[in-house]
Predict the structure.
Amino acid sequence: MNATTTRDRTGVDRNGRATDTDKQIGAKIRERRILSGLNQNQLAERVGITYQQLHKYERGHNRVSAGRLHQIAQVLGASISDFFEGVGAAGKDATVAQHHRLILNLVQDVQAMSQDQAEAVARVARIIATAKAA
């Protein structure tokens, strides 16, 4: 935080700049978009904004208004509260965050596969999960 940043007692930047909370919400938007199988252009078009603006939301460079977040949630089949789960939690577990990133990467990889390849990956995952549980 630089010397010109002024935050009130709740941590909100009074100069209107995006905060850590905005970055966390943006990351949740990105995660839901990827899990929905949409790229930035597709989601932006459905919401009625440019992909550049969506990129700024996802990176936490711009704040998302409540109305815009509602639109995004509708397109992604989510509720607004989904974007606030775990937001502001102190000391977020790095292992959980890393696991979450692995899942997102796996979803992206599976979406790029043929149906047969995706089914093979699912079978392998089930075998590994079952073996671990035993």
